[in-house]
Amino acid sequence: MQSDKPAAPAEAPVPVDPVRTRILRGAAKVFGERGYGATSVEAILEAAQVSRRTFYRSFRSKEDVLRTLFDNSVQMLVRAVRTQREADDTRKSRAELAAAGVDAYIQVHAKAGALARVLLLEQFAPDSPLVEQRDKAMATFARLISKASTRPGGSSPDPILVSAVVAAINQVCISMANEYPEGGWDIDRAKRAILRILVALDESSDPAHWLS
Prior knowledge:
10 helices, Arc Repressor Mutant, subunit A, 2 domains, mainly alpha
């Protein structure tokens, strides 16, 4: 029997602002080449080919641009992991799902090139403008990892352990970004390192026997 209830309207896509996009692309290029600290608003204006007035109609400051690039990066990472994990998830083992999610996560970083290094390092810099965004991002990834590592009917892993795993994964990415500052990471090496970190969430790896 067909329901008379009208279907919920689809959400309208957010329109793309071409000027804002041009500014972000210009800033990404200059940040990647010079680093965040050495980049001025003037350099962004030149790279984006926009006037100062146009810039300030879209962004409040250089810090605002950095925050937007960071937020966009996090959204891309989350979307890539979720999309990969949801693809044929009924036909994949937990190990296969984990490997697919990790691969998607690393690929986004590796393809971001020099900008990835800037964003990864800047989030932990003294007086970083990314502190709030960084904490939200790490909380988001902690929830994703906790959900993915909880077996049906089982208990969730210790939040302290999950936070440590998120921090360790972030450190793998920072190490890769330092070793390959222009991008093109060693995907397999980074993937192995992160998967070994995720093993810590497996109950069978509990180190209680070490302490007995």
